[in-house]
User: What shape does this take?
Amino acid sequence: MKNRTLKCLLVGLLGMFNACNYLDVVPDNIATIDNAFVNRTMAEKFLFTCYSYMPAHADPNAQAFLIADEFWCPYPQYSNYFWNVPFQEIARGNQGVVSPTLDYWNGLKGGKPMFVALRDCNLFLERMNGDIPGLQEYEKKRWVAEVKFLKAYYHYWLLRMYGPIPLIKENLPISAGVAEVQVYREPVDDCFDYIVSLLNEAVPDLPLIIDNEATENGRATQPMALAIKAKVLVEAASPLFNGNPDYASFKRNDGVQYFNQSYDAGKWEKAALACRNAIDTCHLAGFALHYYQPGITENLPPEMVTQMSIRTSVTEGNYDINNEVVWNNSMNNSGTMQWRSTPYLAQSFTATTMMFQPTLGPPLKIAEMFYTDNGVPMDEDQEWELNGQYKDRYSVKTATEDDKYNISVGYQTAMMHFNREPRFYANLSFDGNLWYGISNFNVDNQWVIRGKVSDYGGKVNGFYYSVTGYYPKKLVNYKNVASSNSYSRVEYNWPVIRLADLYLLCSEAANEAYGPSHEDAYRWIDLVRERAGLEGVETAWSKYASIPFKTKPTTKEGFRDIVQQERLIELANEGHRYWEIRRWKRGREIWHNQPIQGWDIEQNETETFYRVRTVFTPQFSTRDYFWPIRESDLFVNTNLDQNPGW
Amino acid sequence: MKNYELLARAFPKRVVSNQLFRVMKVTTFLLLIGCLHLSAASWSQTVTLNAKGQSLKQVFESIEKQTGYWVVYSDQLINRSKPITINAKDMALTRFLEQVLKPQSLTYSIEGKNILVMSSVDRTPIHRSKLTRVADVVSIPLQQRVVKGRVSDQDGNPLQSVTITQKNTQNVALTDDEGNYQINTHGDDVVLVFTMVGYANDEQVVGNRSTIDVILTESESGLDEVVVVGFGKQKKEDLIGAVVSANVSDLRKTSSSNMTTMLAGNIAGMISYQRSGEPGEDNADFFIRGVTTFGYKKDPLILIDGIEVTRTDLARMQPDDIANFSIMKDATSTAVYGARGANGVISITTKEGAEGSIRISVRAENAFTMPTRNIELADPITYMILGNEAVQTRDPLGATPYLKSKIDNTIKGTNKYVYPATDWYNEMFNDYATVQRLNLNASGGGKVARYYLAATANQDNGNLKVDKRSNFNNNVRLRNYSFRSNININLTKTTEAALRLNGNFDDYTGPINGGAEVYRQVMNANPVLFPPYFQPDEANAETLWVLFGNYGDDANYINPYAEMVRGYKDYSRSKIDAQFELTQNLSFLTEGLSVRGLFNTSRYSYFDVQRFYNPYYYSVGFYDRLGDNYTLMPLNELTGTDYLGYDEGDKQVSSSTYIEIMGNYNRTFAERHSISGMLVYTLRNELTGNAGDLQLSLPHRNVGLSGRATYSFMSKYFGEFNFGYNGSERFHESHRWGFFPSVGVAWTVSKEDFWNVDAVSNLKFRATYGLVGNDAIGSDYDRFYYLSRTDMNSAARSGRFGIPGSYYSLTGVQVTRNANKDITWEIARKTNIGLELGLFGKFSLEADYFREYRTNILMDRASIPSTMGLQSVERANVGEASAQGVDGSIDYATTLGPDVWIKARANFTYATSKFLVYEEPNYAQEYRKHTGYPLSQQWGLIAERLFIDDAEVLNSPLQQYGEYLAGDIKYSDVSGDGKISDEDKVPIGFPTDPEIIYGFGISSGYKNVDFSCFFQGSARSSFWIDPVATSPFVNDKQLLRAYADSYWSEDNRDIYALWPRLSSTNIANNTQRSTWFMQDGSFLRLKSVEIGYTLPIPFMQKIGLDNARFYLNGTNLFAFSRFKLWDVEMGGNGLGYPIQKSYNAGISVSF
Assistant: This one.
């Protein structure tokens, strides 16, 4: 103080101004973090801030769900004309440690900064201990529960990507010492336990249902939290995390083993219980599988109604109509995805460039994955075996009146496009396929997709086309409007969890825990199949499967296979496939050995078009089960270990 | 003779003339006596005197009575003499004088019948103006002869007050205002010596001539030169710190409208380079003694008449208006600028009027400019062939962009609109551009007021073509006007007021996105898809607008020609400075004391407006081969316009005020102790009108108290202390003030009595050490580190809920900076050791060794992992760096015979820097750590060569930068961990800032013709070709010819080719910073050549001119460098607007 007086005196002597005050140019009320908690209104903004880190589930440019083999895109991409799709780099084996694609650890290259998110969540929780003027106690409880849910989800998101992660239970002070900030990655079991405990804390204070859909749809609820808990426990029980021997030697520098090394069946029991619990709560909250209610003027035949039920279970965002979506991400909707998924529907639209930007091309193996109209896989269908349809699936056949709702009558297309289950036609579109909706509600005169190279539905330019000849129809809302020169998309909140997902999880967990004879095993999968217009598992296999497969549903292994395929089919195009295959540890089997194939889209003639063309042969090794941690993070924190193989 | 020079300096010019005439009279008498061959010896007088306590005056009277000599002395000299007691009997006069004078520290010399009494310290009969008496002897000169003539400087300007001395005599004359002189010489073999402060001496043998015109060359080493130092001036002789003055007339020889481009190689201690040649955007980067900080502000403080200005203000400065251009490099010279001086100071003072009749100077120039080097592109056919290869070599399934028929037809030249092969450079750029400059100034004044007025108009044109069909000019045209008025008024005998007004205005017209962008677009334009524009087809015969070419349904290719001619941008920049200064001499209180107050305010404004139409694009819809007719297809009928649209750009307004109050004390005691003191209080305030943010809108403020104290003993030993005590608004209260002291000493060895080496006319050692501060350590955005920065309405953190179409959303909260009260000044500790050497009065050398140790450099904390979840990078004053180097200059000036003069100069700067403390992760590999490496050192991969084949790719360490194949760059696995990643990045090349800058040149004259040339060079720097910006075919990028000539292909697997395997996309593996694209940045260029002719004086006088000179000069005529793709000085910016060379013709006239 004396010092300061001296200074002021010394300088002030000569000055016309009081020199010390002269330099105090900053007004007192500059915004600081304290301003964010002065009242309820401001605190609500911070609550929204915590939500803002939600991964962009529906953004094809920034999302992880396209990294797998579910879609393939034109490559290379021209940034001037095209969009930048980091996932393609991962799928093509170009992931690296220097600058990892979709880096959610740092929030770089398409990822969101998850640790920043966790710091904000913790900050919010700390501040909620104090008094916030205007904030009622019941509401504060709900907000705290919501942020705990988010904290759990963000941890889960990192865990799924990176395996063991540091747990950010509380914030370290900014002034923390070097030793303190060099945190360790925790064993995966501890991570799962912590996430589950957070969810358990959150559930009681969350609302069962959202009262005010218009302003709160998308915020955390009890069904959401329980569904995530079910997913987390299933993940923990799955082969990747449950006694995975691949990581036997993956240890921390203090000797702690990251991955448990003994399989624990009890984890499946916990998972089954959680699934069942989640389903019960969902039912209590009014969730149910979605069935399409056609308009009076629509005149839809039953098979088209089934198809529309499948399509709208994803694209119908309004709870009053579709009460299947347990969690929809209101932060991120589907506009871009729809744009990238819709092919040119008619010649007249091609006059307007980029009106449609079809670039997401599901590979041939996705098309082959769907069941036949008998509800069994193509290669297990007795009928297909006998009439040779499976063997000749790549040869062509002319559509008849029987196919009139799915394939343009008289059009020649691949044999495998005939006699498929409704979900095949609901999910995919292809050369000769018919498309219901998008300003056209005449079921007898639907849009015809014509995918040859010089036809309107084919490769009309060098940037926007499907490299495989397929288009993901399910993602496109039938309510979209295409006029002569514009395409306006009716957006929907992205469905992060549908009830069908939970049903299938429950079947899977019950089978793993107790075998197919458990009451939960067939029950839930059959409900999903029923909505898809298919008979139950037991019936379908015993009636339609070839001899060796007839009893497949009765063994644990057989039923496991069935549930897994059912999940991939039911949830196709929705971004689950990549995570599911990793969870089951089937990456090498599926990705390494199955090249990305499609029809020869550069051709104009039917004979040449229906030749199988290999677009890419992916390589997959054990290291690809987990993301690499950015190299520079390891330099800063020497307690972090890189994931094996990177 | 020296005495007279000193005398001339001791008085302002208007006083001098009167005094001088009196002195001259005396001198003339003395000389006349000398001519009579009377000497002391021949008189052999003796003195007899018995004095006790007599005054010196009484003793002198006795001498006069007894000997008949006159004793010449000044009253002041003997006033302080002690009483004299002496007993002499018939003592020889000389001995008597010695006995009397020596105890009084006086000495004498006998000149004719006069005994001159003077101080024995400096043998100066000081205050000779107060001489009381002069020998009253009448004499008759022998062989008297009058020599007349005119003395001027190299540029032909007359020099006044040049001393002309007949060698070995006391015969002296001075030139008048017009530089004319007249001297009466005596005897045979007369040699006249012309001397003038700041100019090299010149000797002329008179012979039979009666008229001798002389041109004096400036000498930078003139000991009497005055140098501008912080808040004042010092004689160069007395200087302790490292301060150099740029020679302004040399700067002028670089033909450029941008002052900053003239600096490189001209000033010892300055590191400078120019990266762009676009008018208005061509400011050079310059640093004093290199860069010693990795903080925010690295460039020096620039002051014009004491006021802080920007680089652009310096760029627009006219050499004609500069009186002094000083560079302050070390601690003692910069400490007084405490807050801002750490990176060195450039200080310019402008000219002021001098008493005399009006003198008007006019300079007019016209220059032609053109790129020093153009980029060479591959021809369109090669472009197409390799373009196809680029796709297929990466993806055999990929569709080739160019059909064979297209290539064939292009080769045949079927129809240049249907099968275009566009040479965009040729379509868009003229070969040369013109520049006009006009400068006019007038100065003069009377007893009360003096003025200097200047006006300048420059017009720099760019070399872009303008479409004949456009009715506006899209070429770059920068018009700069500047006006300056410096007026000094003596309000009273002791009070002087000065008013300085300066306005500087840019009016710019140019392409919408600037000239550099035009060049970049050419690099991104496909040469074969479309022509710049089409000749109208039948359907469009009546179309009013230009039918620009484009391609594809959506016309989203870059047609650079259309982009260039579609509109224009106007900007207007104004900078006005007004400065009022009041100086009060307080000698009536105590001698040598004065105070000065200064108030300055500056206003700056900038705005731009763009006007443009959206071009209508066409492509060929149908081509009738037989009739050679084409039908055009409109591509953007809906979005095109043929009328102008409008867009407003940036508007910037700011103002600053500056107040300075200074006290000065200057006095010499007892002839030998010179002391001076200075104390200055400064206060600066700057406001911005469009900051865009609360924290940015708060004023920038500095308050400071600085001082200087100097002491010198007999001009031999010097000592100096400086300090700056400064406050900045940027820091928290507890760290707001910084104290920056410095000390210096100097010793002029050549002034010692024992020094008797005639060849060494000057030898001086200097040493300084001190602290200087820097408060600009973070960007403006990061100004208040002691406050957190919280965005309460962050869109990036917004959330929304509800159903599509009716969401409820709120913006979020984002903390972008955490408060840190400890952030404070960056401090430089500077040491300087200097040597000055003068030989034979012709050759001078100055050399300085410097060391700098910079601490408290603000830097990012590297120890905080991302798991902390901080949104801002934490920072602290933890960085440390050092720098050292030498800089120096050598000057040589001489005359060869009466008509020829030669001057040579060279200077050299070597500055190297080093990280001392740099917080970074504790890398396992030593080579990754910054410590010990230069500040602009680059780290990169070591490129071994290109991969031979795919087998080698598989068998080599995995490279972690995305896909790569045979023909892509193979890197060394330095860390040996079996993969190539950032761990393998090692320091490569030299730093990007050159460590050596040098220049050398020669000027000479013969009679009325003068010639000069100047070379400038740079060494020890590296730069990188930007592999992304030059990637051919990526987004239709052009193909450099050098790449087309040397690239890896499957047929020609040249593993050392310049360009790796072609690709139509960026291959991240190849675009890593590596040794592959590293280039040597050193060069030597002929910076300027000038030849001038000055009209003969009689002729000029006949037409009423003082001076008229014509000159031609060339700038950047050629350069030696190993790098050939573009002008090497542009470094990595080679695809921008090229650096220009220019040919310039000018005339300067004064009357």
Q: What stands out?
A: Chain B touches chain A through 83 residues (CB under 8 Å). Chain B has 19 helices and 57 strands. Residues 1-44, 124-142 of chain B have pLDDT under 50 and may be disordered. The longest strand of chain B covers residues 645-669.
